[in-house]
Write a structure and sequence with these properties.
The complex is a heterotrimer of chains A (about 475), B (about 90) and C (about 500).
Chain A (H helix, E strand, L loop, with lengths): L3 H18 L4 H26 L2 E4 L10 E4 L1 H21 L12 H26 L3 H19 L5 H32 L7 H4 L3 H17 L9 H7 L2 H26 L4 H24 L3 H21 L9 H31 L15 H15 L5 H15 L3 H26 L2 H4 L10 H16 L4 H8 L4
Antiparallel strand pairs in A: 1-2
Chain B lengths: L2 H22 L3 H23 L7 H33 L1
Helix pairs in contact in B: 1-2, 2-3
Chain C lengths: L3 H18 L6 H27 L5 E7 L2 E6 L2 H24 L6 H20 L3 H19 L5 H32 L13 H4 L1 H18 L8 H4 L5 H28 L1 H6 L3 H21 L3 H21 L3 H32 L10 H4 L1 H15 L5 H15 L4 H26 L14 H19 L7 H13 L1
Antiparallel strand pairs in C: 1-2
Helix pairs in contact in C: 1-2, 1-4, 2-3, 3-4, 3-10, 3-14, 3-19, 4-5, 4-10, 5-6, 5-10, 6-8, 8-10, 10-13, 10-14, 12-13, 12-18, 13-14, 14-16, 14-17, 14-19, 14-20, 16-18, 16-19, 17-18, 17-19
Classes of the chains: A mainly alpha (about 475), B mainly alpha (about 90), C mainly alpha (about 500).
Chain lengths: ~475, ~90, ~500
């Protein structure tokens, strides 16, 4: 009897095998699995809203040896986030051909054959990670995730992508080893590794060291400053579809675990929290600085991810007294979802722009006769979400964050968040003003390329991110659901 | 000198050596080797924690096994990438 | 029935926006249908709403967004005042814009963002709490930016950058102030006489700082000195943009915001208690003088009008900040009157530029002979601004002066007199040149303006005369503002 939880993990994995075995129908496998998994995720969410959190013990064994899947509000929200972004990305990837008997150019065929198995396996690993109930299972999921994500990065086969993949994988391995060390230390301290054991860990000195090691490993995987050096190159040299997935989803896996640990450990771990908050702040400024100086769109967006990851980690880190203000971690979760939607939309839009213009240099955006207006519009709407302007979900997340900070009279942090917002506005408005520049008054022959499905996907995602703010009550209600 | 101390010190030594190499050398093959050393060092430290009073604890050993499996897979991927990169450089 | 009207008003322009994006560039009839249709529909809904509110109804829409945060649309007397101004002027300006941009490029994009602007203004008018107000206020910034840079030239983009810097910066201040106030006071619903309870006793410093943040945030759009720098620069935008946005939507939204914050969040008594009303009044007074003085030195016609806007909008602020009912009536009525007058001036100025390439005051010789209708409209607008009875502007200045006396500040009368003199100083020379000098020989006529560009300014000029003559009619702006102010003071 397969429960929904196991199916959400198993289905993409099986589909990955299918797509790898039958490369010509890889598109079918991919789209099919994505849609079915999304449907499962939605039904899971609905079931949760009605019935409360769920737990499934795989093969009936209990902790510490058994593996458990736990579905509470936060995990299911993350799964939903993954599914919705996957659908949009799947739509864009379907431009490489879906039906097995249609003839596609060789390059598209090889991309398709490589992309789907890798992405489906990534999705399976991420779902497993989100639904895991213990730290070791999380480690295993990270390993799968690391390999498949590197595969996605290297998919385009360019020298820059290969080099970036090598660095990504090396950094990933170091992060994994730190994580493993931490998990083993945790086990040797208290004999358990399930997530519910984290509060016990934070009471012991050895437990705190273990948690520190785990968080260090996670920081490498999340590309938190100063361990972020691998990310801009990796995300900017991958194909846009892969970049969308990497920036929007894969980094969220590590951030999710940091969030989980933060919620469980409650008020403890003050110095670790402070370190995370400081690193997050530095990431915010460093990423913004990199984005301001970027000359290529993809690099700008990748640096923007570094900055946004910093903001989200800072939001998680300052949620110290969770008993006093639960809104913090909910704000962080909302920021994560909003960023995922907006960033994926942005990368897909950038991919379309590069596809039409043949390059992604920012200075060349308005010089061409061809103006990919739909993609530019999607980029603009996604930018609104990233800056955190109303009525997006990013705005609501920032509101909750600043509200909590004001209540704790943490004025310095408020100033830092606002400065980060201002810098984000600066580099994104630079790009948007380029889109509006020159214009039909100067280049009367400017024409628009035909609409492709990627434009629709990007616009759809960006619009959802824009309007999600007003519908924030829904995800917030979902987050309230806990496992009893 | 009990066995677990030896393991811990040896493991820590390997880790230190590996980190030094990673920080100073850019050559890809050397980095792959350094990463392997790092993983083996960590595995040894983990093994040390498995030593119990009478029975060795199986769970940390399971951790180590998983780590080794992962290491093999990752090393294979790294070497494949390195070869592809070299192939491009030679052209 | 209850949430229908606010939502319908909002949706009329909101749905027009994406529809416009799909209209092909040269499908003028379709564009006409979409835009005029949406504008007429919206005006119809607004008229319906006026009647409902006049009978005591209070249509509203409310739903929860996050803990402690509600999205709240509420149609009260003040919203209806602002709404009717923007809906009527949107219709008129749309006609003008279609004519103005007749063969320009990028029209679909233009009208898409034009509709978004009006939707945002409607949202600002109907916002029932500070959170909803903030949402639409920021949306207005985003919707107006592409319009400011519409021409796409380097100048336009420079102005756009500065505009964005000012307005986004103001937005940050407004956001911080709003969040802070929510943290202190919970849901900040707009209530006449204010809703702060006894917070002023417990947190005077915090409330003062919040006030500065909030007023600073809306003050950027309201062009309060020293936050007015963006307004003259944004005159690079096409004439319909300058007319509607910078005479009606953006600047009035700022003034409207000041009104809401001072009357419906703090309450005039609390504002006086905290010592905030007097500095605001002083700032308004300084803006009035500074704007007028700068207008004197400008040769570019639109820039002169821009500085005049800076000065005139602060009449509204002054009316609000002087704690007297008569001044409030004056200020609020001026919101309507100044909107109608300014739009007339800008539409006429647009006609001068397009019809004869005249962009500077020094080029205005003989305009009365060349373009009599537009010049007549301009004249009415200018005379109204100076405050000549029985035109609209006279009434609002009268009430402001009376209010100044009522508040025990006779200096206000001196200020108004000086400002009117300055108004005369920068408007009368233009009128003199236009009517009493011969046009320069050898000037090539520009394009032929169709009725779409000539009728709207004449129409709004008629409105100026009507608003002045029929001020005591039941649904006149004056009667309406009397009702609104009575809610606050009695």
């Amino acid at each position: 009897m397969m429960s929904e939880l196991s199916l959400i993990v198993l289905l993409p994995l099986l589909a990955a095998v299918g797509a790898a075995a039958m490369p010509r129908s890889a598109g079918l496998w991919g789209l099919g699995a994505t849609v079915v998994t999304a449907a499962l995720a939605v039904s899971l969410a609905l079931g949760l809203m009605n019935g409360g959190g769920r737990m499934v013990a795989i093969s009936g064994m209990a902790a510490p040896l058994g593996i458990r899947f736990v579905a509470d509000g936060l995990s299911v929200l993350m799964v939903l986030m993954t599914s919705s972004v996957s659908i949009a990305v799947a739509l864009q990837a379907s431009s490489w051909g879906v039906w097995p008997n249609r003839v596609v150019p060789e390059r598209a065929a090889s991309l398709r054959a490589g992309f789907w198995p890798l992405w489906l396996a990534t999705m399976a690993a991420m779902n497993a990670l989100f639904l895991s109930g213990d730290l070791f299972n999380i480690y295993v999921a990270f390993e799968i995730l690391g390999l498949t994500a590197v595969g996605l990065t290297a998919l385009s086969g360019t020298p820059a992508a290969l080099r970036a993949s090598f660095d990504y994988l090396s950094a990933g391995l170091v992060g994994s080893l730190l994580l493993l060390l931490g998990v083993a230390m945790a086990y040797s301290a208290i004999g358990r590794v399930d997530i519910a054991a984290v509060p016990v860990l934070s009471d012991l000195v050895s437990g705190r060291i273990a948690l520190g090691l785990i968080v260090a490993g996670l920081a490498v995987k999340a590309a938190l400053f100063p361990l972020h050096f691998w990310m801009p190159a990796a995300h900017s040299s991958a194909t846009p579809v892969a970049s969308a997935l990497l920036s929007a989803l894969v980094v969220k896996a590590a951030i999710y675990v940091i969030l989980r640990l933060s919620i469980e450990s409650g008020d403890a771990m003050g110095s670790l929290r402070l370190a995370l908050a400081l690193m997050g702040t530095c990431a915010m400024f460093w990423g913004a600085y990199g984005a301001i100086r970027a000359t290529r769109l993809k690099l700008l967006v990748a640096h923007s991810t570094v900055a946004q990851v910093g903001l989200i980690v800072m939001a998680i880190a300052v949620s110290g007294e969770t008993a006093q203000y639960a809104g913090f971690w909910q704000a962080a979760a909302l920021l994560m979802v909003s960023h995922a939607l907006a960033k994926a939309a942005m990368f897909i839009a950038v991919g379309r722009i590069a596809e039409e213009l043949g390059h992604d240099r920012i200075s060349g955006l308005n010089r061409d006769e061809l103006r990919p207006a739909a993609a530019e519009f999607a980029f603009g709407i996604a930018a609104v979400s990233l800056i955190g302007l109303p009525p997006t979900a990013g705005f609501i997340g920032k509101w909750m964050l600043i509200d909590g900070l004001i209540e704790r009279e943490a004025w310095i942090w408020v100033a830092l968040v606002l400065t980060g917002t201002a810098m984000t506005a600066a580099y994104l408005s630079r790009v948007v003003s380029r889109f509006l520049r020159g214009g039909p008054h100067i280049s009367a022959r400017a024409e628009q390329p035909a609409w492709r499905i990627g434009d629709l996907a990007a616009l759809g995602l960006a619009t959802v991110a824009l309007l999600l703010g007003l519908a924030s009550a829904l995800p917030l209600a979902l987050l309230e659901v806990t496992v009893l | 000198m009990t066995p677990d101390f030896i393991y811990i010190f040896a493991g820590a030594g390997l880790v230190g050596l590996a980190m030094y190499r990673l920080a100073t050398r850019r050559d890809m093959l050397l980095r792959v080797l350094a990463l392997n050393f790092l993983a083996i060092g960590v595995a040894m430290i983990l093994q040390a924690s498995a030593f119990g009073e009478t029975l060795t604890d199986a769970v940390p050993q399971a951790f180590v096994l998983t780590g080794i499996v992962v290491l093999v897979g990752v090393t294979a991927a790294l070497l494949a990438l390195a070869e592809q990169i070299d192939g491009h450089d030679d052209e | 029935m209850t949430p229908f009207l606010p939502v319908a008003i909002l949706m009329a322009s909101l749905c027009a926006a994406p529809l416009n994006m799909f209209v092909p560039e040269n499908a003028t009839r379709l564009r006409w249908l979409v835009n005029i249709g949406a504008a007429s529909l919206k005006l119809g809904f607004v008229i319906w709403l006026v009647r409902v509110v006049a009978q005591g109804g209070a249509p509203n829409l409310r739903f929860n967004v996050a803990p402690g945060l509600d999205f709240h649309l509420q149609a009260d007397a003040l919203s209806v005042l602002f709404l009717s101004l923007s809906a009527l002027l949107w219709l008129i300006t749309t006609v003008y814009a279609i004519g103005y941009l007749a063969h320009g490029a990028g029209r679909s994009r233009f009208f898409c963002f034009f509709s978004l602007c009006v939707a945002s203004t409607a949202g600002i008018a109907m916002a029932g709490n500070l959170f909803t107000f903030l949402i639409f206020f920021e949306l207005l910034t985003l919707a107006t930016y592409p319009l400011v840079v519409h021409r796409g030239t380097a100048d336009a983009h420079r102005a756009g950058r500065i505009y964005l810097a000012y307005t986004l910066g103001g937005g940050l201040a407004l956001t911080l102030g709003t969040i802070w106030l929510y943290a202190l006071a919970g849901d900040v619903t707009f209530t006449p006489r204010g809703m702060l309870g006894d917070l002023p006793q417990t947190h005077p410093v915090a409330l003062t700082l919040i006030f500065i943040l909030l007023i600073g945030g809306v003050g950027v759009k309201a062009a309060l000195v020293p936050l007015h720098g963006w307004l003259p620069l944004s005159m690079v935008a096409p004439a319909p943009v300058s007319a509607l946005l910078h005479a009606v939507a953006v600047v009035k939204a700022g003034a409207f915001g000041i009104m809401r914050i001072v009357y419906d969040v703090y309450g005039i008594e609390t504002a006086q208690l905290l010592g905030l009303a007097t500095p605001l009044a002083l700032l308004a007074g300084a803006t009035i003088m500074w704007g007028s003085i700068c207008a004197l030195t400008q040769d570019d016609l639109k820039k002169r009008l821009a500085y005049s806007t800076v000065s005139q909008v602060s009449y509204i602020t002054l009316g609000i900040a002087l704690a007297s009912p008569l001044a409030a009536i004056g200020g609020l009525t001026h919101l309507i009157h100044q909107g109608i007058m300014k739009i007339t001036l800008f539409l006429a100025a647009g006609n001068f530029a397009e019809g004869h390439g005249v962009k500077k005051v020094s080029q205005m010789d003989g305009m009365g002979r060349l373009m009599p209708v537009s010049m007549f409209a301009f004249t009415i607008g200018a005379l109204g601004m100076i405050g000549i009875p029985p035109l609209a502007g006279f009434l609002s200045k009268w009430y402001l002066g009376a209010g100044g006396l009522q508040a025990g500040q006779p200096a206000v009368i001196a200020l108004l007199a000086a400002s009117s003199l300055l108004n005369a100083a920068y408007f009368l020379p233009i009128l003199h040149r236009a009517w009493f000098r011969a046009p320069p020989v050898g000037r090539k006529p520009g394009r032929n303006l169709g009725w779409m560009m000539v009728v709207p300014p004449a129409l709004t000029a008629g409105l100026i005369i009507a608003a002045g003559l029929f001020a005591n009619a039941p649904f006149s702006p004056l009667g309406w503002t009397r009702f609104i102010v009575s809610l606050e003071y009695l």
